[in-house]
Amino acid sequence: MTFRSLGVAALAVVLILGGCGVDDRKGAAGLARLQDSVVARTREVVGVLAGAGLEVTRAAGAAEYCRSEPAPGVTYRSGGAVAGTPAEVPAQFAAAREALLAAGWVVVTEGTDGGRPWANLGRDGLRLGLSQAKHGERLLGFALTSAECVDVADGGFLDDDDRRVDLLATEK
Q1: Could you give the CA distance from residue 56 to residue 83 in angstroms, rounded to a whole number?
Q2: Quick count: other Cβ atoms within 10 Å of Cβ 136?
Q3: pLDDT tens figures, 48-66
Q4: pTM of the full predicted structure?
Q5: Gap between the Cα atoms of 38 and 16, Å rounded
Q6: Where are the beta strands (DSSP E) in the chain?
């Protein structure tokens, strides 16, 4: 093989592989869109829970990796906790579940785990988990996740900014 053939082959490999990459700007825009959607829906959930007489004391969101192969991907998730005591959780769970169903969420799966009620609800491509924490304060909590996984260029995409948001902050 001649030097010229090697050069042509190397150029072909660079051109072929160069087209396989993911544009970080598209990844950032996709994640921003997903974050806006999850944050807005989480704020709605906090409002629904408040309307059911429940006080959400913690609510936050952050980006996280959802896939490493065949290419890295990120998603956005959020969660929170309701004020109260472990003894209050069964009544809180029932009130939260009913209020969320009235707001358009549908039960995907539900049950009990060691006497603790839990439910996975769905709406608009999002999953809302509602359950009593197994550890720590054992309060009623919720977690909102998206099935969407946004392609990003490399595994360091979230190194400097995981887009963490305090959802109880007054500014949006």
Answers
A1: 6
A2: 8
A3: 999 999 999 999 998 888 8
A4: 0.79
A5: 36
A6: 56-67, 73-82, 106-113, 116-123, 126-132, 140-146, 150-151, 165-166
